[in-house]
Design a protein that fits this description.
It is found in: Cytoplasm. The protein is an alpha/beta fold. It has two domains: 155 residues, Rossmann fold; 93 residues, ProC C-terminal domain-like fold. 52% of the residues lie in helices and 14% in strands. An eight-stranded mixed beta sheet has the order 3-2-1-4-5-6-7-8, sandwiched between helices. The longest helix has 22 residues. The chain is globular and about 65 Å long. The two termini are 34 Å apart. The site of (2S)-3,4-dihydro-2H-pyrrole-2-carboxylic acid has 4 residues, from α7. The site of 1,4-dihydronicotinamide adenine dinucleotide has 27 residues, from α1.
Length: 272
């Protein structure tokens, strides 16, 4: 990654995941600063080698080239208004907040800064993230490239040209690690009821999830065909897959993702 400094405002789960991925990927921890009102999250970042840590958002921005807004959507306005005096016109400001629009962020920053919205996910922490990016029309090529550089250092990146598509990105990537965790929780619990010890169930389940994900990501075969290749006619898998279909899995997934995207849209209204 080229040389620049990045300030994270808010050092909770998502910031920690991105910072963890950046540092694990070779970014110098001294080029990353972070602020948080409470000490705990900053101590976790100290262990990653960060030295520029503090409680003042304004001080932490200092001379940073890139500012990442990593606070909850309800706090974005107050944080932007607090930062407005230290944001330059050409500052790249990346917001990871769900819903909150780029125009509102730009306005709260005193119409300064080049604002890119990002919808990342927590696997960024191990370099396996998946992020959607959207830039306001006024963001220049240099800052578009820089935003992509930051996020592609911790996973795959896709740009969306229309901001509302970030609601779909939230449903398919930002929130989605939680769906797979919920699914794996249920699988591990059932494997335990079937008699497997917890460690074996967890290891076999997690590795199967990684393997299936990699086959889809790294090959050119679609998910439906990969599924069919596991299902021997009248074999064991078919019974499981039939049970999912009979239980309405496709509709349930649609319903869950629609609810997720709808809540993301609500957040955009709530904090405008
Ligand atoms: N957790 C996730 O999987 C994802 C979260 N996001 C977005 O990331 C943002 C942060 O979410 P999380 O990290 O999950 O929340 P979090 O609660 O773990 O982190 C937020 C941090 O901000 C700190 N904070 C509170 N007030 C502050 C202030 N005035 N100035 C600076 N820091 C302040 C809190 O102490 C906390 O450590 C949210 O806007 C969320 O929509 C986006 C994608 C995925
Ligand atoms: O639950 C949320 O609102 C955030 C956005 C995506 C993941 N966490």
């Amino acid at each position: 990654m080229s040389e620049f400094t990045t300030a994270f405002i808010g050092a909770g789960n998502m910031s920690r995941s991105i910072i963890g991925g950046l540092v694990a990927g070779g970014v110098d921890p001294r080029s990353v600063s972070a602020s948080n009102p409470s000490k705990g999250p900053l101590e976790a970042l100290e262990k990653l080698g960060l030295t520029e840590l503090g409680h003042s958002n304004v001080e932490v921005v200092g001379n940073a080239d890139v500012v990442v807004l990593g606070v909850k959507p309800k706090l974005i306005q107050a944080v932007c208004e607090e930062l407005a005096p230290v944001i330059r016109d050409d500052h790249l400001v990346i917001s990871v907040a769900a819903g909150v629009t780029a125009d509102n962020i730009h306005r709260w920053l005193g119409s300064k800064g080049e604002v890119v919205r990002c919808m990342p996910n927590t696997p960024s922490q191990i370099g396996a993230g998946a992020s959607g990016l959207y830039a306001r029309a006024s963001v220049g090529d240099a800052n578009r490239q820089r935003a992509e550089e930051v996020m592609s250092a911790v996973g795959v990146v896709r740009w969306v040209q229309e901001e509302p598509l970030l609601h779909a990105v939230t449903a398919v990537a930002g929130s989605a690690p939680a769906y797979f965790f919920q699914f794996m929780e249920a699988m591990i619990a059932e494997a335990g009821r079937m008699g497997l010890d917890e460690e074996s169930a967890r290891t076999l389940c997690a590795q199967t999830c990684i393997g299936a994900g990699r086959m889809l990501a790294e090959g050119d075969v679609d998910a439906a065909e990969l599924r069919r290749r596991v299902c021997s006619p009248n074999g064991a898998t078919e019974r499981a897959v039939d049970a999912f279909s009979a239980g309405g899995l496709d509709k349930l997934v649609s319903k869950a993702m629609e609810a997720c995207a709808a809540r993301s849209e609500e957040l955009a209204q709530e904090f405008s």
